[in-house]
From TrEMBL:
Belongs to the CFA/CMAS family. PANTHER family: CYCLOPROPANE-FATTY-ACYL-PHOSPHOLIPID SYNTHASE. Pfam families: CMAS, DUF7884. One of its GO terms (biological process) is methylation. Gene3D superfamilies: Vaccinia Virus protein VP39. It comes from the Bacteria. Residues 13-93 form the DUF7884 domain. This is Class I SAM-dependent methyltransferase. The keyword Lipid metabolism applies.
Amino acid sequence: MFWEKKLENWVNNIRHRAALPLRLELWNGQQFDFGSNTAPQVTVRVPHVSALTYLLTPSLSNLGEAYVEGKIEVEGKVKEVIAVANALAANSLKPHGKFSRISRTSRHNKAKDAEAIRYHYDVSNDFYKLWLDQNMVYSCAYFENGDEDLDTAQLKKIDHILKKIQVQPGHTLLDIGCGWGALVLRAAQKFGAKCVGVTLSENQYALAKERVAQAGLSDQIEIRLQDYRDVTGTFDRITSVGMFEHVGLNNLPLYFSHIRSLLADDGVAMNHGITSTDIDNGESPYGGGEFIDKYVFPHGELPHIGLVLKTMQEGGLEVLDLENLRRHYARTCGIWADNLEARADEVRKTVDDRRFRIWRLYLAGSSYGFERDWISLYQVICRKAGRSATTLPWSRRYIYDQT
């Protein structure tokens, strides 16, 4: 049969290029091992001939779709699964054209952005509670010494941000994309700030308001279900953590100019977000970005750090400090993936199997992408451009001297 010869040629081509710890099992009982001296750590079961189309062009998007939609079954530790999938793609596909690091842009408006946010974040608060830290911080943690547990590292991340922007008692602080409220709660409790947190997620909004009320901080923290573009007023400090990935490449100058319009003349802002490591703002290779756009982050777009700095300047902001936390996000996503695996039975009670499979691949795949420099994470501190240099600190010591 035609498919038998095509499959055999594909298997032999992979074997010639790399020895993979992979076993392929077909519906007819036939099996192929891809490593002659390597015990299989991942087994892919193909229940029907129609699923071979996903394998014979094994982009990360095709393989991910086949798994998520139940076209194939996969057995093995998820981190091994991700490594094998990448190896199949790298040894089968040309590193240019449709499987290269293409730049994907889409039109953004308030309605579309709100819909995308709800798709990603309004899965279930109980779902996120099972694998995030106790404060439910859904962004890169900060492992100051490298040996912290997730709860400690997430709290250190929040403090690291608030120290960097020098939050003082009485400061007004706006948190764009406030999640479940962890940063504004910390800013009010430890630093004495008066905070506004905005989110487009109804689930986050409800739980953040509840947590603020339980902490007795309703007079100090306001949580809003609001688009950042509709925020008005003036704030001494502004934070945006894990949010600007949803803004869109073409909208970055407007995003940063709006932050500038909300910032006090002597104010300080921080943008903490994922970036592409491709200088042309390309997504993850081999179809990884396509999978994320389809199943995880609709309309998400990652800029290169160079574009971030350029559009900040265009938006009237001066960059004061820049820190790469790629290594920290690789570890954060790895811990999240481990937590999801460890509590899989409980997680499956909060979401259907399809959603579980999406997140299983996404978290482990993100850790893999950060580890291999496909994507990165930068914290960028900025203020209004054109201000006097005499007000700037002489060194970074102020970040680390505070307790």
